[in-house]
Amino acid sequence: xxxxxxxxxxxxxxxxxxxxxxxxxxxxxxxxxxxxxxxxxxxxxxxxxxxxxxxxxxxxxxxxxxxxxxxxxxxxxxxxxxxxxxxxxxxxxxxxxxxxxxxxxxxxxxxxxxxxxxxxxxxxxxxxxxxxxxxxxxxxxxxxxxxxxxxxxxxxxxxxxxxxxxxxxxxxxxxxxxxxxxxxxxxxxxxxxxxxxxxxxxxxxxxxxxxxxxxxxxxxxxxxxxxxxxxxxxxxxxxxxxxxxxxxxxxxxxxxxxxxxxxxxxxxxxxxxxxxxxxxxxxxxxxxxxxxxxxxxxxxxxxxxxxxxxxxxxxxxxxxxxxxxxxxxxxxxxxxxxxxxxxxxx
Length: 346
Prior knowledge:
The chain is α/β, with parallel strands linked by helices. It is built from ten helices and eleven strands.
């Protein structure tokens, strides 16, 4: 880890118009893929027991090759809006945090509007911040509501397994990690303050820690040398991901607690991205958070990128563990180089 970087100071949320989480919706592919399924499909030298021991994962959801991203996005968004009793045309803005969309352009969020049957030309755009992207989008959403919007729909996640399934040349070091899922969250205006603090930071020294090569960097190569591995996620040093998540979770927690004047004991639930069971456990141990105040779903969903943290939030809500009025510290760490956190009252 490079310790020379200076992390920015947190700027308090001086919002004139407040917002709250109205509802959440989730879309998971029906297809459950076990470790053994992957081992058999790609003739990998591994065992289910070894994968579970090293990563903590038993299974994940993979979309079928002919399943469309817009359908998963629309399913999650529709459930979210139905739970809120809000029609899509009442939404002022849509923000989608993606890994890979259908295209580089136009934005996949626009296609989600088509899938939802929207009649209004609602402003919609995509952002790309890997696993921390949903928190980035939430931060943007509460600021749009402060500036006049009444409802902002945030969507995160996607189909990460498509390249693996079509190209059939998976990287053995990452093939067991990735899962497919989409989560939607409706954030709406309220007179009562719910979002207490927000902090986002990056560490550019870790820029190359995790990446998908597809991009303009390929144009420097001879086109004849290109292959489809450019669509696969590359993780040169997985240990840096763990170290970065632990260090950044300390920094984000310290900033948020200092800004709000709260102690960690006053936080009812701690949610963070769980790129592996070990990464989740390491963050809890570093902060001194009791395991009963947190949750990991990595064992059954894997790394769903921007969907990880909101998936956990939805599980806590739907299981009845998290109730209205509870205080939540929610974090996510993306590709080693980007982290975000919030404290809000659900």
